[in-house]
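3.2 Worked example (two chains)
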Amino acid sequence: MENSAQKFDAQVLSRISTLKMTAMNLVEGLLTGRHRSRHKGSSVEFAEYKDYSPGDEIRHIDWKVVGKTDKYHVKQFEQSTNLKCTILLDASGSMNYQSPLNGHASKMEYARNLVAALSYLLLKQFDAVGLTLFNDQVVEHIPPRSKASHFQHILHGLANISPQGTTQIADVLGGLAEILPRRSMLILVSDFFIQNQDLKKSLKLLCSRGLEVILFHVLHPDEIHLPFEGDMVFESLEEDPTIGLDPQDIREEYQNVIQDHIDSFKKDCNGLGVDYVFLDTSEPLDQALSYYLLKRKSLIKL
């Protein structure tokens, strides 16, 4: 038991390290400066130091440190009035899909990197970010914090995900609507493979409470195009029974249904003022995220 625990810890640490590097590269390589926080200055709690650079407030220089090191360091503070954001990540079984046809990342790998990058970006601009994992209920909840060290808690939560169970987004959102702070942000990341769930009603409730909502709809290209050939048996990653068929017989109808599914979400979101972002896991995440943030920035300026 001890050896297996040590092995598990090593794997978790490896995933955390990979997520951290990916997040830093995405944000610092492409996104820094494109989505800056408007909340700056001192507040209630000291957070960390940064090297002084032209434009920084001189009053925040720590002169005691200057006297000891002959280097200028600026105090940064945890903001009590900054944006609070909760990232809600679907950890149901369907998110674990990985193609037998190509080496594309699984939806969960893609989503992990997305959440890590968004978290790093929010913390970099001194906003508070939290993480909630769910399937048919909340699996884990890490409350929003704005300290830079909080990033390690987010990464640990992401590294420990084991996708399983069914998806009940509407029920989870209904419960969270009662506890999330008003005038905060909710980012929802999922493949949205849901049946008989009134997601629009749940989103409307969140918006009525003053939350800014962003949906990231993550799908694998196999789930969009159904590229398989020959008689196959499809096995559900959640609860549905296995199905045997020739994909060619249903490919066109399937593609139309999936596109209608995507269009329906997009239409509902637009009607509610909710940001809808469709992500195909074959598309480089840095490009997709950079494009979205640039578009978002241009709309905010308008």
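3.2.1 Second chain
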Amino acid sequence: MASSPAFAWGVLLLAGLAEVWWAVGLKYTDGFTRPVPTALTVAGMVVSVWLLAVALRTIPLGTGYAVWTGIGAVGTAVAGMILFGESRDALRLACIALIVAGIAGLKLATPDT
């Protein structure tokens, strides 16, 4: 399925966004005591890992996994700021920027895919 590099990177981006979906969903499950948010969160987990596996057919494991977790970390941090009023102080934003720089660096350092 993920035969072309551009397609694989697109699938990896979707996998990272699905990771944000389930990570944010955890907040709504109330410790997995709410059935509908729990089911949606578990669905997000399945989608995220499945898309990651598809992308890893083309993208090297270390790069793919690091980018996936980076997208999830940045997306979840931003979602926390927007949805839950979490801190937006300069140090936190700078650290998020460092993660984004790391993601971009890994992409640039993987020219074959």
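3.3 Remarks
The CA atoms of residues 66 and 94 lie 19 Å apart.
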